[in-house]
Amino acid sequence: MSRRARTEVLVESAPSLAHELARALEAELPVRVVVPPRQGLVMNQVRETARNSRFYLGEALISECRVRIGDVEGLGAVLGADGELARSLAVIDAAYACEPAPAVLADVDARIAAAGRALDAERAREAALIMGSRVSFDEMGGQDMSVQAVVK
To answer: Nearest Cα to 72, choosing from 90, 84, 89, 88?
Structure first.
């Protein structure tokens, strides 16, 4: 699983999952906090589709943290004011970058994969609910519903 996919699963799942996994890793590995959890602002960049240009929509509050396991540094950043979640994400990020991989990482990987499957199932369920009420305007029987046709 890629770093991006792993982080997406951890952020979109309940925060308790990331906290439990971080505690399991900290029990096995020496974790040192480099930058304690802190809040900051980031600019939201958006692409305007008509001119294909970028502009800044505004600022968003984030919480970030950096930890070190041996020679490897991990970063955790999350939208909102949740420093504890940012720290847990940083610990997990650093653990995945360690060489050789710690033995506890196999269990962590399995739990993240299971949470990813649960998220996929929830997304499929929501998509099925939406598709049940979707209206298709192409099924008008070939009728010309333009303004000119209605006026005639």
So the answer is: 90
